[in-house]
Write a structure and sequence with these properties.
Blueprint (H helix, E strand, L loop, with lengths): L12 H10 L1 H22 L3 E9 L5 H11 L2 H10 L6 H4 L3 E6 L3 E8 L2 H26 L1 H31 L6 H30 L5 E3 L14 H26 L6 H8 L3 E8 L10 H10 L16 H15 L5 E7 L3 H16 L4 E6 L13 E8 L5 H13 L4 E10 L9 H4 L1 H8 L1
Parallel strand pairs: 5-9, 6-7, 6-8, 8-9
Antiparallel strand pairs: 1-3, 1-4, 2-3
Helix pairs in contact: 2-9, 4-6, 7-8, 10-14, 12-13, 12-16
């Protein structure tokens, strides 16, 4: 027997519409749950208010030196000193996660801070910048005492050299006469050399003075007070969580439908059984198509609407009990032209199938038709052996069996020599309100005859 293809339904807008109509309560609860999760996540991930402050490092700087200065700006000593100056009295450890530094162009160290309020963010940025400048200056002063003393000695030596040179030039200038002789030319040459030495000494002195200003740092003004929280805000996280959980619920339903191999369409069921679908009948049950709510989880599923199927086969339901009776009689009328002995096959776990089979057997008994009901296990179906003129009619609920289960049932019928004359699909419905009997109710036989 050729194995029928498995269901491969594509995701269509109609399928999404069924999810929204049949599972709107569950999706709404998921959205609320996602909003609560987003609100909780905002406590951990929402940065609050953010602002920045800049500190300029004067003089030429190397790239690794700038990175070192950025690390010093968020050192524990700087944070502890800033925390001691803040009015709300945090600790340095508390500020460690609120302060970050980076190196910008033009020797600027950018200090970025976050806080719970805009005022706290501005105060924190200003204090960290100020304490960083103080600590950096103190660190440079303490570590460069020897070099500063050496530079001072060099500057004093240069000044003495400048003074001696100036005095020598003055003495030579007095001794130089007005006549242009060899001696006067030599003297003037010496004077020019002395002037060159004097200029060189002055340049060296200026370079030494410039070197003493390399460690200066300046705060580039006060930080700006933020006007709104930084992203992601609590509102964004709440909305994002609600949308994320809602979409997860929709896609979860679509994925479940994609992986669900139970057949719902009549062509697929007929192909799996190798027999035609004689009719689709409604079965009235107290809970309709809902699953009985047992226990706490069952009540929750009932409240959220998760106890009823959302993937509905495209079937036309009957309007009332009279029309249902007509459909059952029509099935028996089609069986009259087939085998003399018909066996109704129904799964032992299919409630709607068992109710439909019992109603068919009751109508057949009133019409003196040989019709027996046989229940089988869906996983390992067994069928009685065939007689001289016998056949089977499969009664099953739509969307309750996979293709492989129906194929195994067809193989069991073939092993028993039974011919499958057809199948009846059942659909659970809620009991309708009692209606006044009409002409069709008074004469169902005439209504059946007219509808054939």
């Amino acid at each position: 027997m050729e194995t029928p293809p498995l269901t491969d339904d594509t995701v269509r807008l109609a399928l999404v519409g069924q999810v929204l109509r049949r599972r709107w309560r569950l999706l709404a609860v998921l959205a609320v749950l996602g909003a609560l999760v987003g609100a909780g996540a905002s406590i951990l991930f929402s940065p609050g208010y953010k602002t920045t402050s800049g500190v300029l490092l004067q003089g030429p700087r190397q790239a690794d030196e700038l990175l070192t200065q950025a690390d010093i700006a968020k050192a524990s000593v700087v944070l502890d000193r800033a925390a001691a100056m803040l009015p709300w009295h945090p600790s340095g450890a508390d500020l460690k996660d609120q302060v970050s530094t980076s190196v910008a162009q033009s020797n600027v160290v950018t200090i970025t801070v976050t806080a719970d309020t805009a005022e706290h963010a501005q105060q924190l940025a200003d204090q960290v910048a100020q304490q960083y400048v103080k600590f950096s200056t103190q660190l440079a002063t303490n570590s460069a005492d020897a070099s500063v003393q050496l530079a001072q000695e060099q500057r004093e030596s240069l000044r003495q050299q400048v003074k001696l040179t100036t005095d020598r030039i003055s003495d030579l200038a007095k001794n130089v006469g007005g006549n242009l002789t060899v001696e006067s030319v030599q003297v003037r040459t010496q004077l020019e050399g002395l002037k060159t030495s004097l200029e060189q000494a002055i340049n060296d002195l200026n370079q030494a003075d410039l070197a003493t200003g390399v460690g200066n740092t300046v705060v580039l003004g006060p930080s700006q007070r933020p006007t709104s929280p930084a992203a992601p805000t609590m509102t964004q996280l709440v909305a994002g969580g609600a949308v994320l959980f809602f979409l997860a619920g929709v896609f979860g339903h679509l994925f479940t439908a994609r992986t669900d191999r139970r057949l719902r369409g009549e062509p697929q069921i007929a192909s799996a059984l190798g027999a035609p679908i004689l009719a689709g009948v409604d079965v009235t049950t107290p809970q309709g198509d809902r699953v009985p709510a047992d226990g706490f989880l069952g009540k929750v599923r009932h409240l959220l609407g998760g106890d009823r199927p959302w993937v509905l086969p495209p079937v036309a339901t009957s309007a009332d009990e009279v029309n249902r009776d007509i459909r059952y009689r029509r099935v028996l009328a089609r069986l009259a032209t087939g085998p003399a002995d018909v066996l109704l096959l129904v799964a032992d776990d299919d409630e709607t199938g068992r109710l439909a089979a019992a109603q068919l057997a009751e109508l057949a008994d009133r019409q003196s038709l040989p019709l027996r009901v046989f229940e089988f296990a869906p996983d390992r179906p067994t069928v009685p052996d065939a007689t001289a003129s016998s056949g089977v009619l499969v009664v099953l609920g739509a969307g309750t069996r996979t293709a492989w289960q129906l194929v195994r049932l067809a193989e069991a019928c073939a092993d028993g020599g039974q011919e499958i004359v057809g199948a009846v699909l059942t659909h659970p419905v809620r009991p309708s309100e009692p209606e006044k009997p009409g002409p069709a109710a008074e004469a169902p036989e005439k209504a059946l005859a007219g509808s054939a």
